[in-house]
Amino acid sequence: MGRIEYIKATESDAEIVCNIVQGTKATIYPHYYTQAVVDFFGRLHSLENITKDIKAGKIDILKVDGTIVGTGSRDENHITRVYVLPEYEGNGYGSIIMDHLEAEIFSEYEYANLDASLPATMFYEHRGFRTVEHRKHDIGDGEVMIYEIMEKGRFAEIKKADKADMEK
């Protein structure tokens, strides 16, 4: 690993953050979801929504040797929008993002929660998150999105995830 910085995103980072989210979604999500669901995620994480969250101080970025390789967000104790560029996955960068988000949350709250996409569920389980609810969201035209509501207490057990977990 090179020089790592985890810092608040600024408005000038919005397009890069959007590209990370959209590029990761476009590469990984089609293996788990229909195109309609992938498109729904694209609208949900639009440049406009990302810019709004940056202005509200909710988005952080992870830089490695000056290059932004990932992002993470939170709204109070709710973790959102954790993405690492696919070419940087498997290097522990998602764990670094989560370590920071969890440290911030657990300094104020007893538990953290998140909405987990299907490809990320096992990663979060290894970090001590447990599914508390399965959700189905109607996105229109007979299409549904399935995801997990997960929660982790401040003192949950953590197991190290490895690259094989992401390939299952």
% residues in beta strands: 25-35%
The coarse overall form would be: globular
Oligomer, anyone? single chain
DSSP summary: helix tally: 6
> Order of SSEs, N→C?
EHHHEEEHEHEEH
Strand sequence of the main sheet, in spatial order?
Answer: 1-2-3-4-5-7-6
Describe this structure in words.
The model has no long low-confidence stretch (mean pLDDT 91). This protein has a seven-stranded mixed beta sheet with strand order 1-2-3-4-5-7-6. The chain is 35% helix and 33% strand. The protein has 168 residues and is an alpha+beta fold. β3 (67-75) and β4 form a beta hairpin.
Q: Short description, anyone?
A:
The chain is of the alpha+beta class and 168 residues long. Helices cover 35% and strands 33% of the residues.
